[in-house]
Amino acid sequence: MTKAQKDTLTPEQRTLRARLAAHTMHAMYDSRETTAHARSARWERYLVQVDPDGMLPETERVRRAEHARQADMLRLSLASAQARSSRKRAQS
Q1: How far apart are CA 60 and CA 25, in angstroms?
Q2: pLDDT tens, 50-77?
Q3: Residues sharing a CB contact under 8 Å with residue 25, sequence separation 6 or more, in sequence order
Q4: Spatial distance between the Cα atoms of 2 and 7, rounded to a whole number of angstroms
Q5: Angle at Cα 72 formed by Cα 34 and Cα 39, nearest 5°?
Q6: 88 pLDDT band (50/70/90 cuts)?
Q7: Model confidence over 26-52: pLDDT tens digits?
Q8: Distance (Å, rounded) from C-alpha 34 to C-alpha 90?
Q9: Does the predicted TM-score (pTM) go above 0.85?
Q10: pLDDT tier, 4 (very low <50, low <70, confident <90, very high otherwise)
Q11: 81 burial type by CB count under 10 A (0-12 exposed, 13-18 middle, 19+ buried)
Q12: Cα separation of 24 and 18, whole Å?
């Protein structure tokens, strides 16, 4: 696809093209394998966040990292809910 063709796609067409690419990739590869490195790096980030000097016992470090992960997921969920609410208000 040329740059001129890309520029003529509507937002809906770009969304469909992206969804098609995602489904094609997931049909070919195990998504747990394709995201393993990212998940590992994110978990390491939580471990460092809660214990930057590595002084805590491993069980306490993991417990705190799990809470940091849950807080991060809730933060993303709240931001998503606020964005949906904002879009809904803008459409009214």
Answers
A1: 38
A2: 999 999 999 999 999 999 999 999 999 9
A3: 34
A4: 9
A5: 20
A6: confident
A7: 999 999 999 999 999 999 999 999 999
A8: 36
A9: no
A10: low
A11: exposed
A12: 10
What is the pLDDT of the chain when averaged over all its residues? 93
Alpha helices in the chain (DSSP H): 3-7, 11-28, 31-34, 36-50, 58-91
Note whether 64 and 50 are within 8 A (CB): yes
Residues 90 and 92: their CA atoms lie apart, in Å, by 6
Element spanning 35, H or E: none
50, 71 in Cβ contact below 8 A?
no
The single-letter code of the amino acid at 51 is: D
The closest of 35, 61, 38, 60 to 48, measured between CA atoms, is 61
Q: What is the rounded CA–CA span in Å between residue 44 and residue 51?
A: 11
Q: Is 72 exposed, middle or buried (0-12, 13-18, 19+ CB in 10 A)?
A: middle
